[in-house]
Amino acid sequence: MKLPKPENLILGFVIGFILISYLLIFLVDIMTDRPDAMASPLWVHFYREGGFAEMLQWAGLGTCSVVSAMMWGRSTRNGAPENPDDRFWLFFSIGTLIMLIEDAGNPRHMLARYFDAGLGFDHSGLIPELLVFGTIGVLLLYPLYYYGGVTKTTAKTRKLVISGYVFYAIAAASSFVGTIQFPTGPGEWYMIYWDVGMFLQDITNNDIIGDQSPHLIVDFMWEETVELLGVGFLCGFVLREAHKFRLLKLPY
Distance between CA atoms of 97 and 40, rounded to whole angstroms? Predict the structure, then answer.
């Protein structure tokens, strides 16, 4: 029996997880009258830091990094000359590996506390945030510009890459808006971010998380959903290319 194409299989799984989790969240957190004494809302368990959605992201980013490294090495196998475009896979492998480390361990938050304590000036904690996101951006955008021929083989390949990059850009912008503290106060964009969370909290039947609930709803559900879609598109792209070059022998 032939399976769906790898990119369709990955995206179908990701979208299915999101739809099923949102349906369960709707049934449990919105339609069920739960007393405040009960445990955290269901959306927290699905989309919190280190929750189910993030674990799927780690698996996807790890797959992207390993398979991309294999794609980079395939052109020099058996002494064949290196194809310059294959350098894309080297940068992409390193970039997704750093994304995995950042997503799983949040080193930028730890570094931000060190910078705040050590430098002592306003917003010094933004330095590691910019360094980490800037490094990831360079590792992903530089090869796309110089060695992007591997992403232009078909229209579907281009759509997978562009969609993955766009979703991750949205997630990064959302994270930045959610953490930055402007000199004049939280800023207009942060208040929009907060208002979205307040709206989502108002339609539920409990506020177990307390005053942080609006922030966490957007920080957890919104950001993790967007990131999961991003990794789904990128992982689909990598597996599609690996299958095309017979690096992975799949029953398609």
Answer: 32
Burial of 66 (0-12, 13-18, 19+ CB in 10 A): middle
Q: How far is CA 1 from CA 68, 182, 244, 251, in A?
A: 27, 57, 19, 8
Report the length, in residues, of the chain: 252
Distances (CA, A) of 177 to 39, 129, 218, 223, 241: 29, 12, 11, 11, 34
d(CA 151, CA 160): 9
List pLDDT tens digits, range 226-238: 999 999 999 999 9
Taking a C-beta distance cutoff of 8 angstroms, is the pair 222, 196 a contact? Answer: yes
242-248 contacts, C-beta under 8 A, 24 or more apart:
242/6, 242/67, 242/70, 242/71, 243/5, 243/6, 244/153, 245/71, 245/74, 247/67, 247/70, 247/71, 247/74, 248/6, 248/67
Angle between helices 87-105 and 52-74 (to 10 degrees): 160
**Which structure tokens are listed for 158?**
């281009």
For 180-197, what is each residue's pLDDT tens digit?
544 444 445 556 656 666
Q: Which residues pair with 185 in a beta bridge?
A: 182
123: left (phi over 0), alpha (psi -120 to 50) or beta: left
